[in-house]
Amino acid sequence: MNEKTREEIALFRYGLIAPLFNGQREPKEYFQELEGKVYQVPYYGERKIAAKKMQEWLLHYRRNGFEALKPKRRADRGNSRRLSPDDKDQILKTRKEELLHMPVSVFYEQLINRGEIHQHEVSYATINRLLKKYNLAGRNHVSFHPEKERKRFAYEKVNVLWQADLSHGPYIPIEGKMKKTFLIAYIDDCSRIVPYAEFFSSEKFDGLQEVTKEALVRRGKPTMVYADNGKIYRSETLQYACAELGITLVHTQPYDPKSKGKIERLFKTIQTRFYPLLKSDPVHSLEELNKRFGRWLEEDYHRKPHASLDGKTPHQVFHSQLDHITFLEDPATLETIFLKRAERKVKSDGTITLEKQLYEVPPAYIGQKIEIRMDDQAVHVFEDGKQVAEAMPVSMKDNAHVKRGQLPSPFAITDTTGEDDKEETDYV
Q1: Which residues are registered as beta bridge partners of 387?
Q2: Which domains can be identified in the chain, with CATH numbers?
Q3: What is the number of H-type helices and E-type strands within the chain?
Q4: pLDDT digit string, tens, across residues 138-185
Q5: Which of 199, 172, 171, 206 has the alpha carbon at shortest distance from 185?
Q6: What are residue 372's DSSP bridge partners?
Q7: This prediction's pTM
């Protein structure tokens, strides 16, 4: 099991315990609601999760954070546990001709009961991977989700829920051409204050990352973030960041914009009250657009009474509850939490390849798979959730003049003048 898979499993586990960790649900009621449900668990396939197991995960997370939710590494990793070709053919035949209707977990149990496999020799994950490879592991039950009655709601406390979304902005001159802009924003469900919002020239994740960091630093940490199913809100980087910060990331049902009514209303307000100002006094750069927008938010939107707030302003409501806000103890931690992640195997020359660029890592990692986290400034090596080294871009020109340690080789010259007088021998 590689590091990426371990992190995916940890994210799944965090998704189940987050409502308990953040105090959104009472444990007894929550466990009763989840009892008997079947989940598609990363790597393991369809499984039922016992309440006792979720309680263990919650305890581990509270004690040691997100890293504690990752599965422990196998003590026997590296040893082959493959099925023979004949075993595979027999299992696939049984699946297709007799037991296609069964969930994979039940099918695995049937194989054991029939004596076709032995539990201590062939794991559930091995069977699940085999069936997935041949498209024989799909769900065999249909979930029906009727349209729920839609009711208005609002949280009584600030920073319980932030709604997040992206909106198309005005065209402005960028590098000599008229280009479209995109507004990425958060809004607090209780106070209607905007923790942070900014215009960008693209819809890439880098914009969401910047807005999220600024929002957390300026307005504290929310309990939940409610976003749609857009690509940037489904990114693994955002999921990992929320998990490590103890924030529950919730996604709306597809094609259901009404469920994020407050931020949709914010965008409408911006369109009717801010955009007209740009027509009478156009901006000439993205920087100028964001500067004027930030000033409008603070001086107009945040200071204007809202009917839904009983005539109070977002600024008044938010600042009346400062005692309930959890600010980040060390904002610098955001720099590592929001790094992009990857996994690479270190080559024999101590290098890895990232986006067609070679990087050098410490020789101690040669032959190993390592976790990489990166941004536009640097590439870092992480181990067990902690930064242990930095990967440096390879310079072929400089390396041509670097002396290397002597390699054992039949062509190496043996110096008989004594250990202290030996010189380093370059190798090609």
Answers
A1: 382
A2: 3-69 (no CATH), 85-133 (no CATH), 161-331 (3.30.420.10), 339-428 (no CATH)
A3: 14, 13
A4: 654 333 334 444 444 568 899 999 999 999 999 999 888 899 999 999
A5: 199
A6: 342, 381
A7: 0.66
